[in-house]
Amino acid sequence: xxxxxxxxxxxxxxxxxxxxxxxxxxxxxxxxxxxxxxxxxxxxxxxxxxxxxxxxxxxxxxxxxxxxxxxxxxxxxxxxxxxxxxxxxxxxxxxxxxxxxxxxxxxxxxxxxxxxxxxxxxxxxxxxxxxxxxxxxxxxxxxxxxxxxxxxxxxxxxxxxxxxxxxxxxxxxxxxxxxxxxxxxxxxxxxxxxxxxxxxxxxxxxxxxxxxxxxxxxxxxxxxxxxxxxxxxxxxxxxxxxxxxxxxxxxxxxxxxxxxxxxxxxxxxxxxxxxxxxxxxxxxxxxxxxxxxxxxxxxxxxxxxxxxxxxxxxxxxxxxxxxxxxxxxxxxxxxxxxxxxxxxxxxxxxxxxxxxxxxxxxxxxxxxxxxxxxxxxxxxxxxxxxxxxxxxxxxxxxxxxxxx
Length: 404
Prior knowledge:
Blueprint: H1 2-28, H2 37-50, E1 54-58, E2 62-68, E3 76-82, H3 109-125, E4 133-139, H4 148-154, E5 165-176, E6 180-182, E7 185-188, E8 192-199, E9 203-204, H5 214-232, E10 239-249, E11 255-256, E12 259-268, H6 271-291, E13 295-302, E14 307-309, H7 311-325, E15 330-332, H8 343-348, E16 351-359, H9 380-397
């Protein structure tokens, strides 16, 4: 086994600079969710250069490639990388700074995609040394509902051939470069968008008796909705309710507005409770508004489900990561209330989603994802392409009695 492991490490080192160049190109030309036209073309072009058969146009801009090893019908596994960017104006002063004003790869999807392309090049180079087929899923639209994963699944990405397991990775700035983290079982939460319009009757701020003030209705509503989490949720089920945006329509210091709009997020890790909580929120908000003389339009946009890492497959992947990186570089991660549309895959089939360390305090690379100064230590790319290639080979060859 050490022979193939060393070969993968050698190839990862050899292709490192090429993957950095790919990542920097992607970083310079980011595109928003479901508008990644040029990114999809670029991925297809690279796969063609690598000699990897692929299909372009799934979920409009998605790309799917196949690498067939020996006995390709034995088993198929999938590897996924997403490639959409965020509506953020980059503030990094780097040579490869975003050239698309107001758009930035602030969540590391440029890393995920360049890594998967590097993995593809390694696996294509050693395809005579594993049995089965690798399906490469380059996915658009992770950051925006309904999620590119859900669309690709509807369009058949998990069929013909049907994978038995899927791997994905995500950058993690709090984790030092060179390290990776795993969490079997429940890992990341569901994510639903909450959109409320509270309607009253506006008027002069000095004459509240002639108005129906939506502001106290909003205040009561926020307090009551938070009590659904603190008083109705089973304490064993992680649950978060946050309102992040509130706007009055036409209010001022001496003007009571006609309406208020609120936006928030509801997150949990249990589908039964998720549905119950939706109904509780709708009923409570409506009754509070009506009891105070107003009304409430409440729209819940159901987003991604919770992400479940197959326990056995994740523990196996963790052990394989230890064999590749050393025990000191593989850590256990806690549950996270952030969400990821990789969860759609995890609801359909065994899945392993792990975190790639990209931070470096000494180099000042500490900014969080979704910020305008996010960046990575690019040494992480050598780790990412080698490790994912190794995990794929270990999974395909795990039942063989041969020595590598």
